[in-house]
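Annotated sample (chain length 142).
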Amino acid sequence: MPSDTFSHTATVSATPGSIYSALQHADTWKGIGPIDNVWDATHEGERLVGFKWSARAAGKTWEGTARRGNDLVAGEMTLDLDSSEIAATIAVTLRSDGDSTALTVKLSARSKGLLAGMFWGVVSDTLRKGMPAQVEAFGKQF
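Output written by the structure step:
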C-alpha cells in the first residue's frame, strides 16, 4: 500500500508544558491531518487516551479512531489514526527554543482501502499541501 510522511515546524510562544497539557484535550487536535471533528474522548486521569474523529473528503464523511501511541520519547506525543481507507500516525514534538517552543508535527499516512490506494496521489498531495497551514494554525491556538 502507498504511504507518505509530511512534517512542518511552527514557532509558538507558549511553553512546552502548557502545549502538552492542551494536547490532552481531543478538541485541540481538530484541523491536523485528516481530523475535521472529534468526539467520544477517553482519558486516564488527565491523560488523553483516544477519541473518534471524522474527515470530509470527496463529498463524503469518513470516520475513524485515534489512540495514543507510545510516549517513550520526552517532549513528544503521538496518536495512531485508523479509518477504513487510511491509517496514520501524528507525532507532535515540542522543543524549548529560548522564549518560544518549536512545535513540529509529523504525519505518516498510508492507504488501507481500495479507494485511497487508487487515488493516493491526490490524497498524498492534499495532505502535503495542507500540512504547513494546518500546523501554523494548530500552533496559534496555544
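Annotation: The longest helix spans residues 120-140.
Annotation: The helical segments are 16-22, 114-118, 120-140.
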